[in-house]
Amino acid sequence: MIRVFLVDDHELVRRGIAGLLGLEDDIEIVGEAGTVHQAEVRIAATQPDVVLLDVRLPDGSGIDLCREVRSASPNIRCLILTAYDDDDAIDAAVLAGAAGYVLKDVRGSGLVETLRKVAAGKQLLDPLLMRKVVERIIAPTGDNRLDTLTAREKQILPLIADGLTNREIGARLSLAEKTVKNYVSGLLSKLGLQRRTQAAILHLESRPAWTRTLEDRL
Fold first, then answer.
1. 73 with 171, same domain?
2. Domain count, the chain
3. Per UniProt, which keywords does this protein have (predicted)?
4. Given this model, what pLDDT does residue 209 score?
5. Could you tell me which residue, 200 or 51, shows the higher pLDDT?
6. Are residues 196 and 89 part of one domain?
7. Does 128 share its domain with 67?
């Protein structure tokens, strides 16, 4: 049985999705939420297999929620379902560790099949959406802001680009999660950026060989 948690601020949307998924013998809806705050508490309590979530919520970002869920419970898979074909949101979803990103105009059968694949551990991102991400980051910029980073910050930046959470970076580098958070804040300040997504893209722009490898996988 695939245990699914729904996060969307529109009750009618949640009811429609719940009704669709409820027709499947192998899918169970274990909880719903309309805000980030509600979702954080209820997801921790229910521990679903897959969280199906919208990008834009009244009290925050579904992308940030995805990152938090993945940090607290790496076994939970997150599938972004949104009406917005937004470049920043797509980039952020990729870097937050989302297992997939699908638009709300997807057919019901397609959503069900995608859920099953995500629950089985597959990484699903619409090839056209993923290619948009690649096309925005493959051109090298020659930006010298990276030279201002310390050795430790230069270690952390590529891990951000790989989509690792602060907790995962800490485990990789044997650092406390709070220490990693401080390093991330410091490198964002030095780079004149506000979001992890921007820092990750800046790093990827400076690594054309890496991005060619990514493009080859599409």
1. no
2. 2
3. DNA-binding, Phosphoprotein, Transcription, Transcription regulation
4. 43
5. 51
6. no
7. yes
Q: Residue 216 falls within a domain, yes or no?
A: no
Task: State pTM to two decimals.
Answer: 0.61
* Pairing mode of beta strands 2-7, 50-53: parallel
4-29: average pLDDT: 93
pLDDT at 207 over 70: no
86 CB neighbour count, 10 Å cutoff: 13
The answer to whether the beta carbons of residues 31 and 6 sit under 8 Å apart is yes
Quick check: helix, strand or coil at residue 99? coil
Q: Which two tokens stand for residue 216?
A: 């080859």
Q: Yes or no: say if 105 and 78 are a contact pair by the CB < 8 Å rule.
A: no
Domain that holds residue 88: 2-138
DSSP string, 131-148: HHHHHHH-S-----GGGG
Q: Assess whether 58 and 164 both reside in one domain.
A: no
- Predicted confidence (pLDDT) per residue in 130-155, tens digit: 566 656 554 445 556 777 888 888 88
